[in-house]
Amino acid sequence: MLLDMVSNIRIAASPFGFVNDILGYILNLIYGLLSKVGIENAAVCIIVFTILIKLAMMPTFYKQQKTQKLNTVVQPEIQKIQNKYKNKKDSASMAKQQNEMQAVYDKYGTSPTSGCLSTLVTMIVIFALYRVIYDMHVYIVPIKELLTEMADAIRNSGVENFTTVLSDFAKENGIASQIYDGGKKTSDIVNLLSNIKPDQWPELEKAFAASKDCVSVISANSDKLNDINGVIGGLNFRYAPTDKLWPGLLVPILALATQLFSINQMTKKQMATSKDMQDNPMMQSMMTMNKIMPLFSFFICLSMPIGIGIYWILGSVIQIIQTFFFDMHFSKIDIDTLVKENIEKASKKKNSGKKSYMQKLLDAQAEYEQQSQMSLKDYAHINSKNYSEKNNDDDIVNGSCNNNYKNGSISSYANIMKSQKGK
Q: pTM of the predicted model, to two decimals?
């Protein structure tokens, strides 16, 4: 049931539409280049695509590794500040805590969000790539041409009520009505054909057995599509490992194993140099995430197309290699030298007028608190003034004088509430 829900995500609109278009354009370009050397396989396209993405993200990953090394000196000071304000939850104390923490980050030329871009981009690419893989016929021109040729053959097959035949075929093979609703357009039929699994093509051929030309086109083009979407072991690039448990289960298992190794590699050194930080809330959160992420990768690669699994596994392998060489690089750099270089870069950025993300948050919070205080005072003043003007005559008639209260005072609020209750 859960896997069916995940599979049907493709029916809904994608929140990463523009990212989908960019990734689709890149994949189509890669496919075109590979086809010129005789390689027409979507899995190989994803392998090349993954390598290119990881190379493009290398600067952000480098920054992430540098931040991890800087954290060995930053986090102990941050922890002291957190312990200092541990039991102080008022807004003034929280503001002081954030200012002192920001001072520490400024001292070392870093920020709490440094290195987060790599993780964010990875997640956006995965969810956008999910939609691109399911809609390969939209982005990869040769695939679209094969499906369009089959759709035209069906429309011109001479089979009466071919839409009814297609609808019955879709129901019998568990294809959702949202994918094919009985339309006669070529695009409607292409959408149906793009969701047919390899073992379902013979059933479609039987449904249009009355037209030999149509069957011939379906047979030839479906074989080409199976080759394009084929992966080692008879797996299909577009479908989940659960469609063929063996060797399909190797995909999520490899994803889990490579993710565990990568996370252990990235955190082992930091934990070894930060034994005094075991009680640090940030360190505990990181340790929790380290336990969750491998399981998350296992679930993602189990329930999503094998193409996502290929991207995830190869991405983890490349990250392991990058981490190994970056560790060698940073092990040769003294921490004091690294801090000095980082401070110089941060100083140049500060002089350029650009603010860090944390500083922007602090400025926004300060502005919000200031506006809130001003709004409260204005509200109290206006309400008290309006009340006094509105009820001045009534006060005189009733022999009372409620205008002696100071605007904005507790007494004025109490008097207003008392009056309103009386009404």
A: 0.70
